[in-house]
């Protein structure tokens, strides 16, 4: 998201002290461009002007370049001239140029002449991202043109109805047929719609195909995900999902997965110490696998997708699995959402997109709330857009039915709850609202940890999550950690706020392969029988126990950010909304938060905050959608 900042003063590090008078300086001081945007744009323009033999660059081209750098920094792949002028106020004394004037200035610039910038319609790309976008679209087209994989359709039909026999399994049958008979499948669906189970079914069916082929060998399968945490979950999740199948099929899945535990995409592609964007596997040294499955594909950046597509053999099956409505990658690009928008839904024969719609996990009302958020029909743009009031009203309508005042008794088991706060919420009101939702679990975790029962403490910890949009501020993670620790300490002097104590929930903040911990792993401090404190983590397979002194990069996790919670779930979730002015508060953020809940979710915040979230839909600027549409 393109965030504005408010300069703290002339010495704010985001202010470019050396920027010459002119357009960049004005946009920097207005908080639109950071010092880094200005410096990159100034330096690159200097080189382009030299190479092109001109005296100077036009201000409007310079501004476009700096805004391109800003766009990429904030997750877009390019600058959209039309939306930036609508979503961002120009500094005092400056007006946004009109579209045609700006386009003409860019087209005549040294930046375009030297290939730094490329303009197509209202989109302006930096060279690298244009090349990657083209490459992704071209590689997908090459894959489409490959002959269909050889499949015994009789065996397939028999297998599909065996693996997914129930009438309500129809979506998964369609997904499995698609993935078996095509080179590329983009499998999308909200949480609990059976994506992992569909992947497990696909693996069983592929193994069966190989058994019926006299020359066949078991397919070489790669399971991967963008993050270590998601990869660690994947192997287990696939094997667990296969438990639904008959023994022969779950054994087929177990055999394939055993030989190929899931890994991060970086590791699969062959990370190189000398580069973060180049890998050992590429067009000249393809991956050997026959099937490549990438889970949590909403976190794929454009660059990583480009590297993946050039490394996968064109005749291998590629399956991208994820929920395009969730928060996108930290880096530039929202490839999964672009694939869905660009190809459209699976009704068109040529679309690789297959969508699972039926949730097998949510109670009806969490599903209804998630659907109202996902389908809120708002105007789309790269910046915050004002949603139709009807969309917010639909969401608020659902919430008003379950609304409570702070302090009123909350049923923590109700599928959806809403503790309606006044704006701005006072500390007292926040205390009153959060205490009944959060404290019982924190207390129970502490009791189990004091008793040395690590398994019980971890199970209780997984029962509830308090999610915040921000790390800091009154509705942020740090303040909630302090709040819960203060409550615990009031009841029990053994709890030292800010220190380590039995029952302190932990969140790993960095991958540590040496300790067997992945960024995002959760754990708890437990008192061992000898009285020493140990950290126990809920790592895949079995819990990992470590001396406290060995554990470095961990944070206290009475609360965590919604970004960090992405990819994980808890039985009960409490979402503390920031004020409506928060720029992080978007529909994607609220959808991601709500869909972390397996059994019940309670929102704590104002109606204004809910309305602001629903109305703020951030779509990242990208040309990929149009490129894919054009490739039809
Ligand atoms: N066809 C089905 N009928 C009934 N239950 C199902 C079906 N498919 C999956 N499930 C169950 O629904 C739950 C969610 O399935 P699964 O984990 O495959 O979904 P998912 O989309 O991968 O979820 P997430 O991405 O949120 O982890 C699991 O408990 C699974 O056993």
Account of the protein in words:
- Heterotrimer of RecB, RecC and RecD. All subunits contribute to DNA-binding.
- One of its GO terms (biological process) is double-strand break repair via homologous recombination.
- This is RecBCD enzyme subunit RecD.
- By secondary structure, the chain is α/β, with parallel strands linked by helices.
- The chain folds into three domains: 23-121, no CATH class; 133-361, Rossmann fold; 396-402 and 429-492 and 502-615, Rossmann fold, CATH 3.40.50.300.
- The protein is built from 24 helices and 22 strands.
- A six-stranded parallel beta sheet has the order 6-5-9-10-4-11, with helices on both faces. It has a six-stranded parallel beta sheet with strand order 12-13-22-21-14-20, with helices on both faces. A five-stranded antiparallel beta sheet has the order 18-17-16-15-19, covered by helices on one side.
- α7 (127-145) crosses α14 (302-311) and α9 (170-181) packs across α10 (195-212).
- The chain starts with 22 loop residues before the first helix and ends with a helix.
- The structure holds adenosine-5'-triphosphate.
- The site of adenosine-5'-triphosphate (ATP) has 15 residues, from α10.
- Adenosine-5'-triphosphate (ATP) binds at residues 168-169, 172, 189, 191-197, 241, 244, 360-361.
């Amino acid at each position: 998201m393109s965030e504005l900042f408010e300069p703290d003063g002339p010495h704010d590090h985001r202010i470019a002290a050396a920027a010459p008078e002119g357009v960049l300086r004005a946009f920097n001081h207005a908080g639109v461009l950071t010092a880094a945007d200005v410096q990159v744009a100034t330096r690159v323009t200097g080189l382009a002007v030299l190479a092109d033999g001109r005296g100077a660059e036009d201000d409007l081209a310079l501004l476009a370049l700096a805004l391109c750098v800003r766009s990429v920094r904030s997750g877009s792949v390019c600058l959209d001239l039309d939306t930036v002028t609508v979503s961002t106020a120009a500094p005092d004394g400056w007006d946004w140029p009109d579209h045609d004037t700006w386009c003409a200035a860019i087209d005549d610039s040294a930046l375009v002449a030297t290939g730094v910038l490329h303009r197509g319609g209202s989109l302006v790309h930096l060279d690298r991202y244009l090349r990657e976008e083209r490459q992704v679209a071209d590689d997908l087209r090459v894959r489409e043109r490959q002959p269909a994989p050889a499949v015994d359709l009789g065996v397939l039909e028999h297998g599909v109805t065996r693996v997914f026999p129930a009438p309500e399994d129809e979506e998964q049958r369609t997904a499995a047929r698609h993935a078996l008979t095509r080179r590329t499948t983009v499998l999308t669906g909200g949480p609990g719609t059976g994506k992992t189970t569909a992947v497990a079914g696909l693996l069983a069916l592929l193994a069966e195909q190989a058994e019926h082929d006299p020359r066949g060998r078991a397919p070489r399968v790669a399971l991967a995900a963008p993050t270590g945490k998601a990869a660690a979950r994947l192997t287990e999740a696939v094997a667990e999902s296969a438990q639904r199948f008959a023994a022969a099929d779950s054994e087929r899945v177990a055999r394939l997965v055993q030989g190929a535990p899931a890994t991060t995409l970086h590791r699969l592609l062959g990370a190189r110490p000398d580069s973060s964007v180049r890998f050992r596997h590429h067009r000249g040294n393809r991956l050997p696998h026959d099937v490549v499955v990438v889970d949590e594909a909403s976190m794929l950046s454009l660059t990583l997708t480009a590297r993946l597509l050039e490394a996968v053999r064109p005749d291998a099956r590629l399956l991208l699995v994820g929920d395009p409505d969730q928060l996108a990658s930290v880096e530039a690009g929202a490839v999964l959402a672009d694939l869905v928008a660009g190809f459209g839904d699976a009704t068109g024969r040529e679309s690789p997109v297959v969508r699972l719609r039926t949730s097998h996990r949510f109670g009806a009302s969490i599903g209804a709330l998630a659907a109202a958020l996902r389908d809120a029909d708002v105007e789309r743009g790269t910046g915050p857009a004002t949603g139709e009031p009807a969309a917010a009203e639909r969401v608020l309508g659902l919430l008003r039915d379950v609304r409570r005042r702070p302090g009123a008794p909350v049923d923590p088991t109700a599928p959806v709850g809403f503790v309606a706060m006044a704006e701005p919420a006072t500390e007292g009101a926040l205390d009153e609202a959060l205490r009944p939702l959060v404290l019982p679990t924190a207390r129970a975790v502490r009791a189990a940890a004091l008793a040395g029962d690590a398994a019980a403490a971890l199970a209780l910890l997984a029962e509830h999550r308090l999610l915040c949009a921000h790390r800091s501020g009154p509705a942020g993670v740090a303040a909630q950690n302090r709040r819960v620790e203060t409550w615990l300490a009031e009841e029990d002097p053994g709890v030292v706020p800010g220190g380590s104590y039995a029952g302190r929930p932990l969140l790993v903040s960095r991958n540590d392969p040496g300790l067997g911990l992945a960024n995002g792993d959760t754990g708890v401090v437990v008192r061992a029988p000898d009285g020493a404190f140990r950290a126990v983590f809920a790592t895949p397979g079995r819990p990992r126990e470590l001396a406290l002194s060995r554990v470095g990069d961990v944070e206290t996790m009475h609360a965590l950010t919604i970004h960090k919670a992405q990819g994980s779930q808890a039985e009960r979730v409490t979402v503390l909304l920031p004020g409506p002015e928060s720029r992080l508060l978007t529909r994607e953020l609220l959808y991601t938060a709500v869909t972390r809940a397996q059994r019940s979710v309670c929102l704590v915040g104002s109606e204004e905050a809910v309305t602001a979230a629903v109305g703020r839909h951030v779509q990242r600027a990208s040309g990929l959608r149009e490129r894919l549409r054009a490739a039809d």
